[in-house]
Specification:
The protein has 129 residues and is an all-alpha fold. Helix content is 47%, strand content 0%. The longest helix has 22 residues, at 2-23. The chain is elongated. It starts with a helix and ends in a 9-residue tail after the last helix.
């Protein structure tokens, strides 16, 4: 629970800093790795600011970007399955073994477990090989 409180304070502070710029008449752009409602941190700022300021959100999610760059695999959704790394590594390994393509999001602390799941599914290769 302490982590949640610290994050709430962080986003409260970040929103206040953005609001100060907006109140001063400046335009503000927030660059994110994801869209605001798809595993993106911006959603926390949006909920604090959208009632007081006009917000325009545009962008491409990482999953859509991956699909655009590998259209051959992603254009046939027969067995494509986005995956979430928060799954137990054994369950993730089973999903990875049973799909043609997958998007694994928000690695963070789960990187080692995801790497192990990829290896167990026969999908891990060392970079550069």
């Amino acid at each position: 629970m302490a982590t949640r409180g610290a994050l709430e304070e962080f986003y409260d502070d970040a929103a206040a800093r953005l609001a100060a710029h907006l109140d001063a008449g400046r335009d503000v752009v927030v660059l994110c790795e994801a869209t605001r409602c798809f595993y993106g941190s911006f959603m926390h700022l949006h909920k604090r600011l959208a009632q007081r300021y006009p917000v325009e959100v545009c962008g491409v999610t990482s999953v859509a970007g991956a699909a655009a760059n590998s259209a051959d695999r992603w254009s046939r959704p027969r067995r494509s399955s986005p995956c979430c790394p928060h799954a137990v590594p054994d369950a993730l390994a089973r999903r990875l073994a049973d799909t043609d393509s997958a998007a694994i999001l928000k690695l963070g602390r789960t990187f080692t477990g995801v790497r192990d799941a990829l290896a167990a599914a026969g999908r891990w290769t060392r970079p550069g090989t």
